[in-house]
Design a protein that fits this description.
This protein is mostly helical. The chain contains 5 helices and no strands.
Length: 139
């Protein structure tokens, strides 16, 4: 069941980051993918915009939240913070680069928002008690 939740979360992240128009996706539920064979890879290094709109901030909260949830799911499945950390951040890097090929703007600074969600989730999970093993020990 946990694996299914992880796959659903990863799929939701993929759809929301790689669909042609995030605005059309949010407003109308429209999912459309367009492949760019030769993207402009230099936009990956563009800095934060000078004007931070409400939509921009909402998207960054989405990055943070999505990777926070994904990391908690990974942590619950693998029980190892290192595995959850590597998988979640790797997926963040992968989706940001992939966005460039789906006519979206993948950015290095978005990996920072994804990573913040990962690190805060790992911090929070350290305060959540682990479920005791249900193994029955016979003498």
């Amino acid at each position: 069941m946990r694996v299914l939740l992880i796959l659903l979360c990863a799929g939701a992240i993929f759809v929301s980051t790689c669909t042609y128009s995030f605005d059309q996706f949010i407003r109308f539920g429209e999912i459309r993918f367009e492949w760019e064979r030769h993207p402009n890879l230099s936009v990956f290094l563009d800095p934060l915009p000078s004007h931070l709109s409400g939509d921009f901030l909402l998207q960054k909260v989405g990055h943070f939240s999505a990777f926070f949830i994904l990391t908690l799911l990974l942590q619950s499945r693998f029980q190892a913070k290192g595995v959850a950390l590597i998988l979640a951040i790797s997926y963040g890097v992968f989706t940001e680069i992939l966005q460039l090929y789906f006519t979206r703007d993948g950015r290095l600074f978005d990996i920072g928002f994804d990573s913040a969600g990962v690190f805060i989730a790992l911090f929070v999970s350290s305060f959540i008690p682990r479920q005791q093993s249900r193994d029955i020990h016979f003498k």
